[in-house]
Structure formats: structure tokens, C-alpha cells
Design a protein that fits this description.
Radius of gyration: 19 Å
Number of helices: 8
Distance between the termini: 53 Å
Mean pLDDT: 91
Order of helices and strands: HHHHHHEHEEEH
CATH topology of the largest domain: Peroxidase, domain 1
CATH architecture of the largest domain: Orthogonal Bundle
Number of domains: 2
Structural class: alpha+beta
Shape: globular
């Protein structure tokens, strides 16, 4: 099932598939998803945690001790905590963001949902998020989960990736198109 999805491949895909199967067998998919979302938020908010996760300078033992403290403080336990510790012991903690992304894709597929990666110049309001979900649902016929990323470099508009399809309506792309057209014109 999992190997059919091109977004779930490589090392992160294999780990995500293993975690998904463990969570499914333990009937704790939603709990694991919530724990991983919390860990992802911690990762986004803490430069120290990012450094711990990404830097090869830290030994596995140091990473394990620090991760255990973070998990305990964040009250992440069970399958999620054990999985993150396995990633750490296997020196694959650097791939945790990709593993989380792949796990989300597997859960969405399992629940019959679609997942869209949306890049915007500034955070969207709840009204705009709901409108975007509704528009994507009308296209896919499925409930759509949004992974929203804020990237001011796109200037305005948005970029939506849904499966193998991508719609880029960012101002950056439109300005680059105009620039290229002007270069060709003379």
C-alpha cells in the first residue's frame, strides 16, 4: 500500500511506513499523528532542537539523552516516543521532518483524504483556509488536509502541490514570466 505513493519513498518513507503500521496495529494513528504534529511544532519553534536534530556533531548518546528530556517535557510517549528514539539510535533523526511528512501522507491515504502542500507569502485566515479546502475538495472529491508553509519570497499569491499536480499563482512566478517575456522581446 505505502510503496505506491511516490511521496513516501527513500529512508524517510520506509521509517514512516514502519511507524504507520505500528500505529495502525496499536490503533493509535490519531494519537501518533498528534504527537508528531507537536514534535514538528517544537522543531519549528526551537533553534536548539533543530540543531540537535540536524547536526552530526552530537553523539547518538547525547542526542538520545536530550531527546528523552524533550519528549518527557512535551508529554510525548508510547509509540511516538519509542519511534523517535529508534530514529535517534539509528542516527536518522535528521530525517524526522521528512518522516513526519510521509507519515501524514500515509494517514491521509488511509483515511481517504488528500494532502496538499500550500506555500503562501503570509499566514492565511481561517476563512481563506476553509475556502481553499473547499475548492480543493471540489477538484479531488476528497477531504483535503493542508500543510501550509509561509515563504515571504513568493511575494504574494500561493503555490499549491496536490499529489503530482502543482498550481503556482505566486507573484514571484508571474514577475519572472514577465521578465523573461521582456528579455525575449528585446
Amino acid at each position: 500500500m505505502a510503496t505506491e505513493d511516490p511521496s513516501v519513498s527513500g529512508v524517510s518513507g520506509r521509517y514512516a511506513t514502519a511507524l504507520f503500521e505500528l500505529a495502525r496495529d496499536a490503533q493509535s494513528i490519531d494519537a501518533v499523528l498528534a504527537d508528531l504534529a507537536q514534535f514538528d511544532r517544537l522543531l519549528a519553534e526551537s533553534d536548539d532542537l533543530k540543531r540537535l536534530v540536524r547536526s552530526p556533531v552530537f553523539s547518538a548518546d547525547t542526542q538520545m539523552k536530550a531527546l528523552s528530556a524533550v519528549l518527557e517535557k512535551a508529554e510525548i510517549s508510547g509509540v511516538s516516543a519509542n519511534f523517535l528514539k529508534v530514529l535517534t539510535a539509528n542516527r536518522r533523526l535528521f530525517a524526522v521532518a521528512d518522516v513526519i511528512r510521509a507519515f501524514r501522507a500515509l494517514v491521509a491515504k488511509f483515511k481517504g483524504e488528500a494532502t496538499a502542500d500550500v506555500t503562501v507569502a503570509e499566514a492565511l485566515s481561517d476563512t481563506n483556509l476553509d475556502a481553499l479546502k473547499a475548492a480543493l475538495k471540489s477538484v479531488t472529491g476528497k477531504d483535503v488536509t493542508l500543510n501550509v508553509k509561509v515563504d515571504p519570497s513568493i511575494i504574494g499569491g500561493l503555490v499549491v502541490k496536490l499529489g503530482s499536480r502543482m498550481v503556482d499563482s505566486s507573484l514571484r512566478t508571474k514577475l519572472n514570466s514577465i521578465k523573461n517575456a521582456m528579455k525575449e522581446a528585446g
